[in-house]
Amino acid sequence: MTFFERLLPAIGLAALVGCQHAPPAEPADAIWLNGPIITIDDAHPQAEAVAVRDGRIVAVGKRKAVLRYQGETTAMHDLQGRALLPGFVDAHGHVFFVGFQAMSANLLPPPDGGVTDVASMVETLKTFSKDSVLREQFGLIYGFGYDDSQLTEQRHPTREELDRVSQDQPVLVIHQSAHFGVVNSAGLKQLGITADSDNPKGGVIVKDPATGEPTGLLEENAFFMALGKLFPKMNPQQAIAMLQEGEKLYTRYGYTTLQDGRSAPMYVKIAEAAANAGALRADIVSYPDILNPGVAELMVPPFYHNVESTPQYHNHFRIGGIKLTLDGSPQGKTAWLTEPYYQPPEGKGADYAGYGVVDDDKVVEVYTQALENRWQTLTHANGDRAIDQMIMGWREAEARVPGVDVRPVLIHGQTLRKDQIPALEALGIFPSLFPMHTFYWGDWHRDSVLGPERAENISPTGWLRERGMRFTTHHDAPVALPDSMRVLDATVNRTTRSGRVLGENQKVDVMTALKAMTLWSAWQHFEEASKGSIEVGKLADFVVLSDNPLTVKPETLIDLRVEETIKEGESLYRREAGTALNAPPALGLAPALAAHDHAHRGEGHFGGDGCFAPGLEVIFQRLTGGQH
Question: What is the pTM of this model?
Answer without folding.
Answer: 0.84
